[in-house]
Amino acid sequence: MKKYLEIGKIVSVYGLKGDVKVEPWCNEPEFICEFDRLYSKDGKKEFEVEHCRVQKNMVIMKIKGIDSVEDGQAMRNKILFIDRDDVELEEGCYFFQDLIGLTVVDIDTQKIYGKIKDIFQTGANDVYYIQSIDGKAYYIPAIGDVVIKTDLSDEKMYIRPLEGLFDED
Fold this sequence. Notes:
It is built from 2 helices and 12 strands; from the N terminus they run E-E-E-E-E-H-E-H-E-E-E-E-E-E. The protein is mostly beta strands.
């Protein structure tokens, strides 16, 4: 598993003092504001967050050392990362980045349906987009009745499909 996880992208400067506007890549923009430090992809560069707030589903952030419009412009299009060790997820919660690529297996028959290629947030529940080996697309709801077990170490998600979910007709 990756140590550093993408959390958002700096899209523009906000104001005259170097604040930046961040497009969040997480369920809730407020999540980003919980961190005092963010990182570059490899973790070699650390960004100290001085203050942070949410405005219209975007995050306005002040990063230490970014003190002018020019400094902020230089940060534009940079991807921000969090250190996985800085987050404690609730039981049964996963980072999308950990789920994408998992092989989806029927828990009862061991039939392999394909790999998770993307995840969509619908409001009621997430939906996993699965692509089979022969290129067929399937969508499964991320609900307890369907997703029985997620094994990140084995890179598999075990499901019990709802009736008709994988029917060809």
